[in-house]
Each structure stands twice: as C-alpha cells, then as structure tokens.
Amino acid sequence: MKLKKITIKGFRGFNTEETILFDDNITIVYGQNGSGKSSLTEALEWLFFDQISRQRLSRCKSEYQYEEYLKNVFYSESENPFVELTGTIRGIEYKLKKELISREYKLYINDLEVADFSSLALNLESYFRPMLAQTEIKALVDAEPKDRWEQISCILGQDTLSTSRDDLMALRNNKKTDEYKSSLRKYESLITELTEYPEFISLTQSLSSLNVAEFHLELSKILSISNHDIEAISAAISSKIKALLNSELGNRVTSISYPDRFKIDEFAEYIKTGFEGFASEAIKVSYGSYGKSELEFLNLGYVLGKSPVCPFCLEETYTEERKNSISKLLKDNEEIQIANSRLKTQTDEISLWLSNFEISCKTYLPNETELAAVAIKLKETGLEDLAIATQQLQTKVDTDTARLAQTLKESWESYRVYVEQKYFHKNTDVVLEINIDNLVNSIKQHFEDINSAWESLKEGIGKAISLEKDVDQNTFKKWFYIEKVSKFLNNSAEFITRHKLLLEIDLIQTDLEEFEKKEIETLLALHADEIKDYYHKLNPSDKVQFFGIETKENRRQASLKAEAYGKQVNPVTFFSEAHTNSLALSIYFPQRVDRNATWECVILDDPVQSMDDNHSQSLLEVLVEIQQRKQLIIMTHSKEFYLKLKGRFYSTKPAIYHFYNNDEKGPKIELIGYRDTERHLKVCKDMLLLGDITSLETAGGELRKAMESVCIEYLMYNSIPFNIAKNVQKNLGIKGLFDKANSVGLPDENTDKLRSILDISQQDSHAWSLANTNYNTISKGIDFVQDILDNHIA
To answer: Is residue 625 exposed (0-12), middle (13-18) or buried (19+ Cβ within 10 Å)?
Structure first.
C-alpha cells in the first residue's frame, strides 16, 4: 500500500481537522519535539493496528484508557474523532476511515461501513506494521533481557504472539480465584499424602488427572464392591471406618453426615435466583399505569360497548380507534397483572424460605443433637479436649446459623425496599447497599467452615478411639484419607473444571511460547547477515560492531552480542545511544521494509533521536537505497537532519511539512515545499508590496537568503552533495557559492547580476548584504533569482 492523503480530527495531538498530502516518493515532516509529529504516526498505527506503540510498549498500560489517550483532550465537537486515509493498494485507490466512539470504533471503506479491513487483503496480522515509532527505538536496549525479547518481537512484527501469550496469562490469573487457590492447596496436600499409602497406587493417575469416574472405578475395586457410584462408595468407606471404630461413640461419630457440596450450592444459590426473580417481576409490573378496579371497568365497557355509542355516557365517543386502543391496553395490562401475581407469589416464597432458613440450613450441617451426644460420650471416655471442641462446634452451628438468618432477613428487606423505590416510585437516587453474590458466598462459607471443622474433629476423635481400641494406625489413617479424597472430589466439581481449564491454558501457553521462540529465532537467523549489514552501513569504519542476537534456551530472553576493538562487549553497557539507535533500525529494516510486500511505504518517526552527524549521514544513504523501491515518510525534530534530507532528496522534489506552535487546537502545519528559494522569494514579494521601511528591510534580508539558497539548489541540481554545498556556504559565504556555482556551469552573467545589487566594497567579507533596500533594487533582485530558477534549474 502507498499513502496519498490523510485527514485527522480530534485524535491525539490533532484537535481541529488537518489534511496532509503525501508525496509519491518522499514526505518530510520537520518540527520540534512536542509539535505533533508523532501523532501523525500514531494515527496511521491506530487506523490499521488499533493500538499505538506508546501504549503497547508502556510499562503503565493502565494509564492508557481507550478513549482518554486516543481522543484529543481539548476536542469538544459533536462529530466523532476520526482518521481518514486515501491510498492505493495494488494500483487501486481506496479511502479508509476509522471513527473513535468511546471504547469502540467504526470502520469505513469508500464511505461504506465495514466490520474490518479484511476485504483489502492487506494481511495485517501476518505482515508487519511499516512504521517504526520513536518509542520502539528507545525501548530496545533500555530493557531487561525478558523485556528486550518483547521489543525484538515487536520490531520483527511478532507482537501478536506476545499479545496472545499475555492474554492467556491474564485469563489464567483471572481464573485463579481465592476459592480456587484454597481448593488447590487441599488438592496438592491430598496428592502428597497419597504417596504414604502404596496400596492405593492405582489411584494416583486418576487423582492426578482429576478423572473422577476413573477414580471411583479404581476405588470400587479396592473396596471390593461392584457398584461404583458415589453413594455406594461413600457407604462402603463409612462401613470400613465404622468397623474400625466399633463402639457406641464410634458409631455415633460415623453416623453424622451432611449433603454433598453441589446440594449445598443449590440451596445457597436460591437467594440469588429468588432476589433476581423478584426484581424481574417488579420491572414488568412497573410498566402498568392502571389499577385492578380501573382495568375491570375498562374491560366491562369493552365487552358491553357497541361502536360508536359509549355504554356509560351514551354519547357517540366509542370510535373504532378508541375500541382498538382499549383492546391493546387490556392486553398489555393483562401481562402486567400476571406479573403482579407472580410478584406476590415470589415475595411469599422468599419470606417462607427465610422464615424456615434456620431449620433448612441445619439439614446441611452436622446434626446438633448428635453432636451433643458425641460430646457427652467423649466426656465419659475421658477425652475432655475433644468433648469441649465438639460442644463449641455445636454452639457455632446454632449461633452462626441464627446470625446468618438475621442478616439474610435484613438484606431481603433492604433489597425489597430498593426494588420498590426504583421501579414503583421511580426513585433514581436509590442505592442498593447489599451485594447478592456476597450473600450467596456467605451462606456457602458458613457451610464450608462448619463442615470442614467437623471433618477435622471427626478425624481427631477417630484417631483417639482407634488408639484406645489398639487399631493399626496406618489402617485407620488410610481409610480416613480415602474418605477425605472421595469427599473432596465429590464436592469440587467447579474446582475440577477450573483446574482442567487452567492446565489447558498452561499447555497452550507453553506451545505458543515454543512456537514464538522458534519464529523469532528463525527470523533472527534469516536476517542475521542483513541486520549486521545494515548495522555496518549505519556505522561504517566504526570499531564498535554488532554481530548478533542470541536467544536463551527454554527462556523468552534475548542477549545482544557485540565487540569493540576486537574484544567482546555487552552492548547494553557499552553501546552509545547512537549505536543503540542504529541497532533498532538494523533489526527493523530487513523484516518490516525489505520483506514486507504488503506495504510499499516506510514510516520513520524521529529515526535520529541520538545520532551524531556521521551516523545520520550514514542513515541518509541507507534511506536513499530504500527510496528506490519504497515510499518514504520521515518525521524528524533535528534541523540538521531535516536539511540533509531536503538536500539529499532534492531531485525527487519531496513534500515538506513544518509542524510548529502546537496548542489546544493542535499543531500549525505549513507545506513549505522542497525549494527554500521559492519560500524566501514569496516572503520577499509580500514585504515588498507593503512598502514601508521596516518591510523593505525584511524583504532585503529574504532576498539575500534567496540568493544563497538558489546557488545551493543549483549545486545540488548539478549533483553536488548537500553537505558539500552547505560547507561552502559556511566557510566561504555567498562569494564562495557564486564561485562554486560558476565552476559547475552557472553563467557568469547570472552571478554578476546578483553581485550588482550587493555591497561588495568589502571584498574579503563573506557576508555581503544588499547595497540598497529600495523597491527597485529588491524588485530587480527577485527577477535575477527567478531567472536562475526558471532557466537553470529544472
């Protein structure tokens, strides 16, 4: 793709609408830091790739809220901010547009809205962005080895893989809730404990893979039972433990049970479905505007009335239109009345559920009466500590359940008032002060705390009884362990599902990282010689040379290799910023320029940030090579580099823009063309027309600059490099420029005309000024310069 024109409004540094025309060969954008140049690059990035490098590479991504960082902070117009680009793809012209709408956007191709740009066959996901942002250059070496991997991945165009990996990691972390982590610790403890029982080795595989069906099958073999469903296995395990603890106390302990977790969850979830069902019916009821008696009156009139006479007032007001209106109203309100009836039923059901909560709740917990009996037997047996612990658990069942019941009743009352205020009284200021999910979790946690406490206590009591009865402790422990494992698997359906999902995510992430590493290693190997070649072009005759990027085995890390004066050095600590800059460009050029068939353009945002004169001159020659096959768009803050670009590409007539005075309206943008001479002449002519003394003095100064400029342009037109022409100007002044121009073919007649209006009384001075700054002298000078432009420079 080649770029022809871009229009930007309300995006990043651009507030008011601005249009920039791109030259087919080279466009140069010059402006100081902060003038808005990077916003031009970012507009192109966002148009095609959604993210911009500034946000993508930031260590503080949370600071970049979508609309906040893309929309110009001063933009206040009703029209959506947008970026619109006209360009050619395989010779066909397209107009592409992207509008920013809060956190979303709309895309257009030739003014028709589209879902994406896939129809253009730009292969945006498999090819690589043609722009190298200044943030990418800065980020490469100022990074840890792990982070440098990300930067190299971005420059090589593989950042989609890194983004996918980051998304997987974020998904994994989101799935690791506190409840999951708690269950994971229990699970890992059970896995570890299993190694203590060699006779249960057959359970290892199924427990490790969390294959519940296989675990039950293997366990039924160990228990010597043919039925391997949950109830049968639980009964068999309980029978084993009861046989070991064969006493009145043992029988009481093993008889205390409670439902499996999924039944408890169903009970707890009712509070959510009940509350939300109540709100749903309340919303439907709130749509009604007639009471029951009013609706009965309307229905009676509808049945008795015969158009056009009203059955009540006997006037001819009962039109067909009115009859249809009443029919619709009755139909709509019929549904509302049904909802009203359901609302009352829902309210009664919730009230009944709450009034029975304590009783219902205790059916999901260890029985209080049985706990009391166990405590008495423990005391009789002399197990005082266990007796006290059992009594405390009994008290906890009673008091905590009562407290929870009261909390739920208060929450229901608060929720009911909230719904009525919001939907019946249309009170928009009312605030819901309870969290339903927290209520559900508090019920589940109540059961979890008490039932877990009983399991621990039960094991302690069982151990005490087994010691008293001289039962083999390993036998006792292993069956209590099996009971724990079985209960865990039966009660951890959500954990098992989540854990298996996380294992899949880990596997995908590992495969993705391996693929990403191979891709980047392949690209680095493929481009190794090209990267070094570009680096050497940017650093000719330099004793500090880069010779490779090495990736760490089995790690997403990259190390840079270089040598100075024959000795291996670490580029991170040894390279100057100019060398670092060169390295970033050297990695960028092979992949995103040379091997990037989709894009026929190259966009460089401030490529000479830290380069000295020698390095920038080398970059210039590299750009000359690239310009033979690609459209160049170059932003720079360096006046020296801007002048070099303008001079080196003089013959291609580049489009040159000056960005300046960036304020709340955005940057001021001036198309200054590739000829300084014409610009100086324009100012000169404008000042000449004003005619006052000050304006004539200004016109004289601009004419003097136009004379120097036309000589420099003549030299460049005749293949004299820009830097040589500038050196003549710097060292020999305008006299030297005249002589040099004469030496390459400019007739003496033309330079003599220019001399005729200059003060040459001081022959040795380089800084000749105009002899007179009157209208006639300046007017003649304009004609003399224009003659050289028209007749000696094409």
So the answer is: exposed
